[in-house]
Design brief:
Layout: H1 2-5, H2 10-76, H3 84-97, E1 101-108, E2 113-115, E3 119-120, H4 129-136, H5 138-150, H6 153-166, H7 170-187, H8 190-202, H9 215-229, H10 233-249, H11 258-276, H12 281-321, E4 330-336, E5 339-347, H13 350-353, E6 357-364, H14 366-378, E7 387-392, E8 398-400, E9 412-415, E10 424-429, H15 435-504, H16 511-543, E11 551-554, H17 555-572, E12 576-580, E13 587-590, H18 592-608, E14 615-622, E15 626-633, H19 656-660, H20 667-677, E16 681-687, E17 691-699
Parallel strand pairs: 12-14
Antiparallel strand pairs: 1-2, 1-6, 2-3, 4-5, 5-6, 7-8, 7-10, 9-10, 11-13, 14-15, 15-17, 16-17
Bound molecules: adenosine-5'-diphosphate.
Length: 707
């Protein structure tokens, strides 16, 4: 495995290692982190669901207890409420013995409904035998003939009065009195008419027929008409107020529609009167009080109307299907006066059915639920400070708690199982957050951490890869350097040996030839020395132990003598050298040998990296602070992108010319080190194919440098 890995580049290996040992574990860690967030959310959900189930069960348990109590009370209450008074008593017994319910109502076999104050279709209009007998009597019929056929109203009054003398029942008397009153009105004798109607008011109203118009109502209505005809507004208003009070006090069955008709028209008449008779403060005060009482009645009427339209069909349907069990409430969510209500209904035991009563219904008292029941249940459960329990209706509107209205996001919500259909009990966060929102922060932290780790690792990887590439490059250059230096050493040594051996044989007799051989041996050993000096100097510099011997010297002289020593070699390799060195001395504190070595390196490079135009220009100048030496050639030049690197150790530009030229890659590194040691700078300007100019700047005053 490792052997195979050797063929893979180090960069790939680093990437592989980074992925395998860092990226993979951190990806796994992040995944685990995110999973733990998910698990936390699930745990929260489970916990909250547990709590909400507990609360719901407790609420339902409480409601079931209410139902138990209700059943008990219903069983104990006599099952024969027949007359109106019976019913009133029955309801008041229920009301005082039960808790948590309002608007109790009963439904009977003929789909009639009755509540504490309103009935609808509960009583069927029954024919009155007494009235029948009266209408068929001879006196009565002749009186009717006078009234309607002969239109002799005075006569009719007389005849009706005779009939009155013979009648003994209140209902008969009321019928006759109202006819007498009517005939007086027809004669224009309103006072007399009103007096007759007033007699009706003294009679008791019919007790057994709540479906029909009570005669007191008809009488009061006629009295107000009579006063109206006599333009006796005040008296009319008094009659209307009595009528209004009578209607509110004792509403008769709504089913016929008469009741609401009377109520509305009386109210309208009174409104008109109060508006046009603002001085009659007594009347308007009484009217206002009665109106207040009417609003309670209105509520009851509205409720019974809702039950008639929405609940009664459900009861009918359940009875028809046989799915409504005795004394077992069912619930229906309804809207009453634009607010959500729960209406319960149950089938009464058969004992009630003798009175044709089949079911009992009620509204769950929201006030009781909210103010009593829920706070009592919730006080036994520790919810922590961030969580609130709420009841949500079918429109997702909050019914409880009261200080939260509208629609909120909940943590969890559960349906009630049987009571309160389509309502839910829910847990809310105090700030309306959902579970997902609660764990969102953790999620973000994990993701942030993951991204952070990734970034740090990415940066680390880039740095490592770059460092590794650099190391690789250096080791490559070192290997090249060794082969270059070996080669550089071998050539002069071979030449020295060859010419030395030739001279040793004594066969070369020609003095000129011998001289030439000596020269070669000298030059080659000089090159060797130069090379070895470079290598030794470099190793010292690299190890940081290179020492310079500074002394005050004339730099112009140093340059001049270095050029002088190298001039011969330059000419020999066919170069033209133009130098410009001022005669005046340029005194600076320098290491003469080191400076001379730097110049030699520049000159040597100029000869090495020139092809066709063999030219070297050396210029020495000075300004107020520095001595400036430039060495110019017209050689191959250096590509722009290579310029920053050529001063690095072992670095050699990868052009063809460099490759065919021997070199160690140390020359310019040495030049730079030497110049820096003198507190100066070395710069280069070069153009490929046109040549290069190296410029060394050495300060005249060299501060901060040891001597
Ligand atoms: P070397 O021993 O290779 O000459 P140096 O450090 O002296 O090492 O130079 C580094 C590289 O810079 C050389 O390999 C060469 O490619 C480039 N170089 C230096 N001087 C010149 C020059 N005068 N003209 C063109 N290229 C040069």
């Amino acid at each position: 495995m490792l052997e195979r890995l050797e063929h893979i580049s180090p960069k790939t290996k680093i990437l592989f290692v980074a992925t395998l040992f860092i990226l993979l574990p951190s990806a796994i860690l992040s995944y685990l982190g995110l999973r733990s967030v998910h698990e936390r959310a699930e745990n929260l959900r489970t916990n909250y669901t547990g709590t909400i189930n507990l609360i719901r069960d407790k609420i339902e348990h409480e409601v079931l207890r209410l139902e138990d109590n209700l059943r008990l009370v219903l069983r104990e209450t006599p099952a024969e409420p027949q007359t109106k008074q019976d019913l009133i008593n029955w309801f008041s017994r229920i009301k005082s013995n039960t808790q948590g319910i309002t608007h109790p109502f009963l439904a009977n076999l003929s789909e009639g409904l009755i509540s504490t104050s309103v009935a609808s279709g509960w009583w069927k209009p029954r024919k009155s035998l007494e009235l029948d007998r009266l209408y068929h009597s001879a006196e009565f019929q002749t009186a009717e003939v006078s009234e309607f056929v002969e239109r002799d109203f005075a006569r009719a009054i007389e005849r009706y009065k005779i009939a009155l003398l013979n009648s003994s029942f209140a209902i008969q008397k009321a019928a006759l009195l109202s006819r007498i009153g009517r005939c007086y009105f027809k004669l224009g004798k309103y006072t007399e008419g009103i007096a007759e109607y007033k007699k009706i008011l003294l009679l008791p109203d019919q007790k057994d027929n709540h479906a029909t118009l009570p005669h007191s109502i008809a009488a009061l209505s006629q009295i107000s008409e009579g006063y109206s005809s006599m333009k006796m507004e005040k008296e009319k208003a008094t009659a209307l107020l009595r009528l209004y009070e009578r209607l509110i006090d004792d509403p008769w069955d709504l089913a016929g529609g008469d009741f609401t008709f009377y109520l509305n028209s009386v109210r309208n008449d009174l409104e008109d009167y109060v508006r046009s008779h603002s001085s009659d403060t007594t009347a308007s005060r009484t009217f206002l009080e009665l109106q207040k009482r009417e609003s309670f009645l209105d509520e009851e009427i509205g409720f019974i109307e809702l039950v008639r339209q929405n609940i009664l069909p459900q009861i009918q349907m359940a009875r028809w299907r046989g799915s409504l069990s005795e004394m077992q409430p069912r619930y229906s969510s309804e809207r009453f006066h634009d607010s959500a209500v729960q209406i319960g209904y149950l089938m009464l035991p058969s004992s009630f059915r003798q009175s044709h009563i089949v079911s009992f219904g009620f509204e769950i008292d929201k006030q009781y639920l909210i103010v009593d029941l829920l706070p009592r249940i919730l006080s036994t459960i520790d919810l922590g400070k961030d969580v609130v329990v709420g009841i949500v209706d079918e429109k997702a509107e909050i019914q409880y708690p009261r200080d939260r209205s509208g629609i909120w996001d909940h943590l969890v919500a559960e349906n009630f199982s049987q009571i309160f259909p389509s309502w839910k009990v829910a847990l809310f966060h105090r700030e309306g957050k959902t579970i997902d929102a609660l764990v969102e922060k953790d999620k973000q932290i994990y993701l942030g951490l993951f991204v952070g780790i990734m970034l740090v690792m990415l940066v680390g990887m880039v740095i490592t890869v770059r460092a590794a590439s650099h190391e690789l490059e250096v080791s490559r250059m070192k290997a090249e350097f060794v082969s270059n230096v070996t080669h550089e050493l071998k050539t002069p040594l071979a030449l020295i040996r060859m010419f030395g051996e030739t001279l040793e044989t004594g066969l070369v007799t020609d003095e000129a030839k011998r001289h030439e051989f000596y020269q070669i041996i000298r030059k080659e050993s000089e090159r060797l020395t130069h090379l070895i000096n470079n290598v030794l100097d470099f190793s010292k510099m690299d190890a940081g132990i290179k020492e310079y011997t500074f002394e005050e010297a004339d730099l112009a002289e140093v340059v001049r003598s270095t050029l002088e020593a190298y001039k011969f070699h330059i000419r020999e390799v066919g170069f033209e050298m133009v130098s410009e060195i001022p005669a005046e001395p340029m005194i600076a504190t320098v290491d003469k040998d080191a400076i001379s070595q730097a110049i030699l390196n520049l000159l040597s490079n100029a000869t090495k990296y020139s092809k066709d135009e063999k030219y070297i220009g050396v210029v020495l100048r000075k300004n107020s602070t520095d001595v400036i030496l430039s060495v110019e050639d017209r050689g191959v030049g250096i590509p722009k992108e290579e310029l920053p690197k050529i001063f690095e150790k072992f670095y050699r530009v990868g052009t063809a010319k460099t490759r065919e030229t021997r070199g160690s890659g140390l020359g310019l590194a040495l030049v730079k080190h030497i110049v820096k040691a003198h507190g100066g700078e070395v710069e280069i300007s070069s153009e490929v194919g046109r040549g290069s100019t190296f410029t060394i700047t050495i300060p005249l005053e060299q501060e901060g440098r040891g001597r």
